[in-house]
Amino acid sequence: MTLYFWNYLWYNVCKTDIVPLRIWFLRLSQRSRRFIPPDGIISSIKTGRKCDMKKKNLIKGGAAGLLTLLLTAAMGCFASFAYDSASLKTCTVENRNTVVITGTAEKDMPQETVPETLEDGTVVPPETEVPDDGYYYLFELQPYETGIGSRTDYAAWCDKTEKLKFSLPFSGGDSDPRLYSRFVVALKIGDTYQAISAPIYVTNPGDVASFTEEYPEAMSKKGLLIELDMLGDAMELGVKHTTINIPYHHIIGGNLKYHYNGKDYYFNEELIASYDKMISSFSNKGIIVTAILLNGWNDAHPELHEAGLAKSSSAFYYGFNVSTPEGYETTRALFSFMAERYSGADYKHGRVSNWIVGNEVNNNKNWNYVGPMDLASYTKLYEKNFRVAYTAIKSRSKNARVFFSTDYEWKKQNTNLQYAAKDFIDLFNAGISAEGNIEWGLAYHPYPYPMTEPEFWDDDQTGMVNETFESPVVNFKNLHVLTDYFQQAHMRTAGGQVRHIILSEEGFTSDSISRGKVYDIQAAAFAYAYYLVDNNPYIDAFILNRQVDAITEVETSCAFGLWTVDMSRPDKVIAVMPKNIYQVFKHIDTRKSLRYSEFAKSIVGISDWSEVIPGFDPEKYQ
After folding, report:
1. Which end of the chain is less congested by CB atoms within 10 angstroms, N or C?
2. What is the pTM of this model?
3. Terminal CA-to-CA distance of the chain, rounded, Å?
């Protein structure tokens, strides 16, 4: 009888009655919670005095005995609440007046937990979680906010359903902060809100852009870093792409007023006028312009840098700051100003078609300094900066392309200041894909290894270049590794396309550190590299560094220019003599291409370009 009694009590009271009652009770809204048990179960757990009539005859020990038994049994069937989870799938602007966020939610059922019995026999009931109030809430967070925190001002709410859809009003303006926000789903637990989803950002800011002209079609992939006062020479060379550096720390401050999001900002009018002249000179002649957005140190505007960051003697440029309210507002105003001015809407200003956010950003120490941090933290910080830049640019010019750049150190040991390009790209791609997949592109720098020797075709002999995805260096010797990697499904855009790749900075020295002047090898290296790029459909542009040697680079055996430079004039770039590479560069994308590159075959050690370039078709150059 005793065994039967305990079995009955466990299976029919604890398993069937008490736990469902407790769950049902706790799931009620806190404001309306009251003790109203369903029919057929114990009506008062506190006293245990009234039970289902079918059980009544089995319990004859009186109220006190029943209370003891019930409490003892109940101690073995506490419910632990595992809170719901949500996954946001899309976040888009629709009809220029609404931001629509969709996703799914999964309700987690309470799990029974077992009490702990101490050595002295004391039974300790398990801790129970506070239940949520039965609704889902959508919170809107600014880029500088780390989480919901103590906020209670949710943007929207809904009943608990498997499929989620929230619609928020949107002004339609490109400066509307909602365009830059991230959104999370939360539960109300007690008096606080707890996020149950990863964040998601708006993925189509281009749909609010006023300038919607198509991306310009280039006549070839040939590009060059141009000296403005040698634009005539660049046109003679047939340049189709170029880059310009835009250091934001020089732009901010001045008398050129820009009103943005209810506030006036002032920029350097003289410097902006020089960019107007440069960019319009290039783009109005059909050259596709790529602008590199840089952030140097500015003592007068500390908001441009991460809060508390100290100036570093090894840093040429610093990361942008969107981690504080003032930094975010100033930075996006700068991005928006440049994107609006050079969208192409005004031919007097010109058009920037490609924007690169920072330089070689896998190098925190020298080119994108934000202070020492591990790779995951650094990449997440850069993601925030990139999204602000991307949104500002695309919301002004729908078909502009936005890139980040890395050096050629593809796979290496990561430190807290310098990271492998591949590892950075992998984390960046995963983060962007998880929080609203946007169409970022890569601007890569595949210099020879080492940069002080122009030959790249023997770089495998250094032990740093191989044909695998784990190659320490990826450059022209194994360039297919880069594009093969980007063809993988997880690296593609949300629409399944291979992301845009441009080679925005690379060069071949004419001053070998071991042999002196090697003008012919420099020219041969360029010809070989250009044919590699031209026959790779996943690379859009090859922008050579540079038109004229830079004195500081020549001093380190990196004479990359088409022209030599007057080394006695550090105050001004004065071209002296065109090198052998000059004529090769000029004709490489013309019908005279094979004639001007014929000499290079013997230097490379081949009799036909098809030996080293898969699919090479000489008819293309005739």
Report:
1. N
2. 0.86
3. 101
